[in-house]
Structure formats: structure tokens, C-alpha cells
């Protein structure tokens, strides 16, 4: 089944579906649907501009050298004044277009048409010089006017739309120049036009084939990139899930353990760990039921998260316990944070079975300084939490370095 890339109203089309649809499409059209065409030029625009500017620099150099070479080796007794006007004027015009038209701030169409203008200037200049020739024009004059056009189509990578315009304009100018020289017989004029068409037509067909192939190569690369990006997003989502507590949506113990290890390895002594326990949670469960207990955990987690900074880590430690890792906090900051959390939960109100309910928390605080390992930091915070419980709950207690549980209880 082919995809059109269409999505629900108001949503941007999916580029992967558009790319797959374009790869399955046959026909003459080269342009992609609008969204895909914009992505195409966004991706290749800078590279294409560099390519265009390189083409113009080398092209104008080659055009000038080819013109001099032809006049020295092929054309007998060249009119060097006309040669100077043709080559000098054309090269000057091309360099002006290069400076003003082929710049990154200009639109894509402007840049591509600027390249077309450079090619037309060089190719038609060789034809227009014939109109000003005082001596009778010959078949040789017109035959020598064709190579610049062929040179442009072979060596300048015009897009197909510009190649078609180049083809038509050159034929038209060539025909008009032939008409302007009555010494050229009609039969010879038809031959010259036919010869020019025969010489340029393969390049026109080749331009279409080349652009179609390059666009299809881009689509394959874009699909690979989009699939890789989608896979990275999925992997990131799976990683987030593996670090997230399914019930409360905060970080889980695994994420906390990694963060504690990172903190232990970091230089400096700043940082603190808070262990938070919901007071009398078993009694709450017995009174309201386990579903209400789950809801209570979610309310408390949301309340705690709302009162923390973006760089603080809130994790579910297990059961009704939460952990808060303050990676940059000093003692005063950590104590203020613990008091703020305790006060916020104390004033938290939620509804269970149509009845208002509330809980309190006890908080144990341990500073990173003096705790050499994550296990030691957790142990110190746990001792402080036990002391807060022993002191009557709804309290904050700070772990003293080197104190055990019995010393904390008697403090």
C-alpha cells in the first residue's frame, strides 16, 4: 500500500511517508511535495551553493581560456576587439552575478536562475558577436558559436528546469542571429539549427535523468536518517522508561543509584541527600485502601517535584519513601529545601472517596561531605530519617557525621 504522507488536519505531513511515496512514483515530474521539497533544499542548500560558486569560478575561467584558444588556433585573423568585448563583457557580467546573486541569503530559485544567467551570458555572447561582424558571416562562424553552449551543458550542473530554459533560449537566439544574416541560405540555416539541437538535446535528456537519480538517492538517504532518528527517539523513550517509576512518574531507584555514583565521582564536596518517608502510611492504607494509597503516593510525588529546582533529582526510593538528591547544595540550602518540602506536604490536601485527606512526611538529611561512598551517604540520611521519626514525625533531622542510629535517637 502506497502512502501519501497525509496526516490529520493541522498536523505536518510525515516526511518518511512522503519519501516512500515519491520513491514509488513514476513519471516526468521531478519536484517533491512542498514539505519534502523544503526539507530537500534545507539539507542540500549549503552544499549546492558551494557547488554553484565553484562551477562559476571554474566555468568563467574555462570560458575565457577556451575563447582565447579558439581565436588563436581555429579562427583566421580574429577581430581582437570583438573578442575582448565578447570575453571581457561576458566574464564581467558573470562575476557580478557571482557576487550579488549567488549568495546564501538569496532564495534557492534566485541562485539557480543566477547560474542559468551565467551560462546564457557566456553562450549567447558568442552568437551575438556574429550579428556585429562587418564581413559576411560563414558557416564556420556559426559552427564556432555552438561550443560555448555545449560547454555549459556538459560542465555546468544546471537543474533540469534551468537546462530546459537554457536549451530553448539558445535555440531561439541562434535562430534569430541566423535570420539577421541574409548571406546564410535557408537550407544552411535549417542545417545549423538541427545540428545545434542534435548537439544539445542529449544534455537536456541527461539533465533530467541526472536530477531524478540524485533526488532518489537523497530520498534513500533521508529515509535512512529519519529511521535512525526515530530509532534514537524510541531508544531514548525506552531509556526514560527504564529510569522512571511506573506509579508516580518520578525517577526510580536505578536512576538514583547512577546519580549518586556520578556525584561521588565528581570533584568538590557540595551536595546532599534527603530521604523522605510518608508518616503512618500503613495506617493510611488500612483506612482508605491500597488504591487510595497509590493515589496518595502520586499526590506527594507531585507536591515534592513542584517544590524542587530543575537540577534536583526526585526519585522513589521504595514503598512510601522518596529520595531527593541536591547535587550543588550547601548545608543551609539543603536544610531550607527539606523544610520547604515538609511544609508543602503538610499543607497538601487531596480527596479520597469524597473525603478530604492529608499526610505528613519525615525527612532525613545527609551532606555529601564526610560520606565517601553512595552507600555511606544513604546510610547517613537513613539514620537522620530514623531520628525524625523517633522525634515525633513531621520533622527534619540532619545527620551528624559518624553518628549511628542509637546516637541519632538520643540526640
TrEMBL record:
EC code: 2.7.7.65
Single GO molecular function: diguanylate cyclase activity
GGDEF domain ranges (all copies): 269-401
Top-rank EC class of the record's enzyme: transferase
Reactions catalysed: 2 GTP = 3',3'-c-di-GMP + 2 diphosphate
Gene3D superfamilies, per database record: 3.30.70.270
GO cellular component: plasma membrane
Membrane-spanning parts: 55-74, 80-102, 114-132, 163-179, 191-210
InterPro entries in the record: Diguanylate_Cyclase (IPR050469), GGDEF_dom (IPR000160), Nucleotide_cyclase (IPR029787), Rev_trsase/Diguanyl_cyclase (IPR043128)
Record-level GO BP terms: cell adhesion involved in single-species biofilm formation; negative regulation of bacterial-type flagellum-dependent cell motility
Keywords (A to Z) from UniProt: Membrane, Transmembrane, Transmembrane helix
Highest taxon of source: Bacteria
Protein name per its UniProtKB record: diguanylate cyclase
Annotated source species: Pandoraea thiooxydans
Amino acid at each position: 500500500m502506497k502512502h501519501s504522507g497525509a496526516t490529520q488536519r493541522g498536523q505536518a505531513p510525515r516526511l518518511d511517508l512522503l519519501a516512500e511515496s515519491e520513491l514509488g512514483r513514476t513519471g516526468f515530474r521531478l519536484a517533491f511535495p512542498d514539505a519534502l521539497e523544503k526539507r530537500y533544499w534545507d539539507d542540500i542548500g549549503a552544499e549546492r551553493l558551494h557547488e554553484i560558486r565553484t562551477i562559476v569560478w571554474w566555468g568563467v575561467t574555462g570560458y575565457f581560456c577556451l575563447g582565447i584558444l579558439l581565436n588563436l588556433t581555429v579562427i583566421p585573423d580574429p577581430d581582437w576587439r570583438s573578442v575582448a568585448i565578447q570575453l571581457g563583457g561576458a566574464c564581467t557580467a558573470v562575476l557580478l552575478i557571482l557576487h550579488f546573486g549567488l549568495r546564501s541569503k538569496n532564495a534557492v530559485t534566485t541562485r539557480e536562475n543566477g547560474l542559468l544567467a551565467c551560462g546564457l551570458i557566456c553562450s549567447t555572447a558568442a552568437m551575438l558577436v556574429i550579428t556585429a561582424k562587418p564581413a559576411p558571416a560563414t558557416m564556420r562562424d556559426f559552427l564556432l558559436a555552438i561550443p560555448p553552449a555545449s560547454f555549459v551543458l556538459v560542465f555546468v550542473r544546471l537543474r533540469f528546469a534551468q537546462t530546459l530554459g537554457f536549451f530553448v533560449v539558445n535555440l531561439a537566439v541562434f535562430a534569430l542571429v541566423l535570420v539577421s544574416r541574409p548571406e546564410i541560405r535557408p537550407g544552411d540555416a535549417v542545417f545549423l539549427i538541427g545540428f545545434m539541437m542534435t548537439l544539445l538535446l542529449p544534455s537536456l535528456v541527461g539533465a533530467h535523468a541526472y536530477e531524478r537519480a540524485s533526488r532518489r538517492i537523497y530520498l534513500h538517504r533521508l529515509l535512512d536518517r529519519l529511521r535512525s532518528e526515530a530509532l534514537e527517539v524510541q531508544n531514548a523513550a525506552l531509556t526514560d522508561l527504564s529510569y522512571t517509576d511506573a506509579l508516580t512518574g518520578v525517577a526510580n531507584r536505578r536512576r538514583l543509584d547512577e546519580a549518586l555514583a556520578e556525584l561521588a565521582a565528581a570533584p568538590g564536596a557540595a551536595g546532599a541527600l534527603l530521604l523522605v518517608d510518608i508518616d503512618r502510611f500503613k495506617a493510611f492504607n488500612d483506612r482508605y485502601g491500597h488504591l487510595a494509597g497509590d493515589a496518595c503516593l502520586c499526590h506527594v510525588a507531585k507536591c515534592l517535584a513542584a517544590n524542587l529546582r530543575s537540577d534536583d533529582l526526585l526519585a522513589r526510593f521504595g514503598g512510601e519513601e522518596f529520595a531527593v538528591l541536591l547535587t550543588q547544595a550547601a548545608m543551609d540550602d539543603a536544610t531550607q529545601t527539606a523544610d520547604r518540602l515538609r511544609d508543602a506536604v503538610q499543607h497538601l490536601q487531596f480527596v479520597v472517596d469524597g473525603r478530604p485527606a492529608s499526610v505528613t512526611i519525615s525527612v532525613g538529611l545527609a551532606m555529601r561531605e564526610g560520606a565517601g561512598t553512595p552507600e555511606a551517604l544513604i546510610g547517613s540520611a537513613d539514620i537522620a530519617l530514623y531520628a525524625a521519626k523517633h522525634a515525633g514525625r513531621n520533622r527534619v533531622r540532619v545527620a551528624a557525621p559518624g553518628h549511628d542510629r542509637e546516637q541519632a535517637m538520643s540526640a
